[in-house]
Design a protein that fits this description.
five-stranded mixed sheet
Length: about 425
């Protein structure tokens, strides 16, 4: 059976599998995405393994898979405790940590303050979805136009017609481009900044090398259009006691997370990891955020030997996470109301996000509209972590990761057919 390990369905965890963590704190409760499996309806492990064994792994290289009940009982596994590069499945872990610390209703604030007469500072609050002009997207309610309108109204009411404008992007620390990422990506991967518009890129091929400066220049144009004369002054750390002139707020964290997971937004994931670092009292840099998320995982019994985190988005192909940890992390979201926003925000096969165009052949039809999962793709790396409902009505959680994969299509077929095989399972 291709090396798959048969485990009793009544077992809650193997010796190497992390137990389901205790509930998190600080978020608004939300309904579980689908009904919860009961112990009496757990699928038979042998039948699950037989279905998975029929899916070809030709060209997959090194891989691991973990299949659990939605309460964390181990159903089937193959090299589930092998540390593998997870690609964007890393975003599930970053999002969980941020959600646990900040809560589903938390928002990020972009602020204009006045440290003195005729002086303004635009303060980045780490909203990864801040826009220049207003957006129709519910995930992007905060815009520089709105902020400028409020600022200009306050200035006019105070009789101020001219200002010197600086910007404060000191919320985050360290480099804005991860040194372990491929240098060639620097041209198009967004820089990580607490003050950014347009998601940090000019277009699909060109990243903004100075996002805070660009946002400030755009804000200055908005103020000018509102009748205020503006002189730009560059970077200027805002005093803690500076008067607040105007603010705009991001969408709730649950909404930001849903968009981050559905579109696999690398910038947003890195920003969420930094926000968790700040909440945890750690340095909000690449290394500080990775260390903070690692500590969170350990505190929730979601750490395994050989794992390594180098960023919050999964862009590094040197990070390592086990399929078991990914699967148990999703179980934690499904079983903890305050963490449910992660599971609820996953793409749906054939319907939304990065899975909209997946599950696109007859062998994968059972997964369409059924599989809710986070995708992960880098050169030679394919991963999928999610949940589904079987033909028997049982909800299963799974994580499958392949490294050394020979081609994107090969990886997608293996993942989508494996998940679809589970969805077709009449395995009770």
């Amino acid at each position: 059976m291709l090396g798959l390990v048969l485990v009793s369905a009544c077992t809650t965890a193997t010796a190497d599998a992390p137990p389901v963590a205790q509930p998190g704190t600080g978020a608004t409760a939300s309904a579980s995405p689908t009904p919860t499996t009961t112990p009496e309806t757990l699928p038979e492990a042998a039948k699950v393994l037989a279905r998975l064994a029929k899916v070809s792994r030709a060209g997959i290289g090194t891989s691991g898979i973990s299949v659990l009940s939605d309460t964390g009982a181990t159903i089937a596994q193959r090299k589930a405790d092998l540390p593998l590069a997870p690609a964007s499945n890393m975003k599930v872990l970053s999002a969980l940590a941020a959600l646990d610390a900040l809560g589903a209703d938390h928002t990020f604030t972009t602020t204009v303050v006045s440290p003195g007469e005729g002086r303004l500072v635009l303060v980045g609050g780490g909203d990864p979805l801040l826009t220049d002009k207003p957006s129709k997207s519910a995930a992007k309610p905060a815009s520089l136009k709105e902020l400028a309108t409020s600022t200009a109204a306050a200035l006019t009411a105070a009789g101020v017609k001219k200002v010197r404008l600086g910007y404060d992007d000191t919320l985050f620390a360290g480099p804005d481009f991860n040194p372990v990422w491929k240098a060639s990506w620097r041209t198009y991967v967004a820089r990580v900044s607490p003050l950014v518009i347009g998601e940090g890129v000019f277009n699909a091929w060109s990243a903004d090398p100075t996002p805070a400066r660009t946002a400030t220049a755009a804000f200055a144009k908005r103020l000018t259009a509102a009748g205020i004369t503006v002189t730009l002054t560059g970077r200027a750390e805002a005093p803690a006691d500076a008067d607040v002139v105007a603010v705009v707020h991001s969408a709730p964290l649950s909404t930001v997370i849903a968009r981050t997971l559905k579109l696999s937004d690398n910038l947003a994931a890195e920003v969420l990891a930094r926000h968790y670092a700040i909440a945890a009292g750690a340095t909000p840099s690449f290394t500080g955020a990775a260390s903070a998320v690692k500590a969170w995982l350990k505190n929730h019994q979601l750490w395994a030997k050989g794992m390594k985190l180098l960023d919050g988005s999964g862009l590094s192909n040197r990070s390592r996470v086990t399929p078991n940890v990914l699967a148990h992390a999703l179980v934690l979201s499904l079983t903890t109301p305050t963490l449910n926003a992660v599971a609820a925000g996953l793409p749906v096969a054939g319907k939304s996000g990065t899975l909209k165009d997946r599950f696109n052949d007859p062998a994968e039809r059972a997964g369409r509209g059924n599989v809710h999962a986070k995708t992960g793709t880098l050169i030679g790396i394919s991963a999928l972590t999610g949940y589904l409902t079987t033909a028997d009505g049982d909800r299963l959680v799974f994580a499958a990761v392949g490294n050394g994969v020979s081609g994107q299509t090969t990886g997608y077929n293996w993942l989508d057919r494996s998940a679809s095989a589970l969805a077709r399972c009449g395995c009770g």
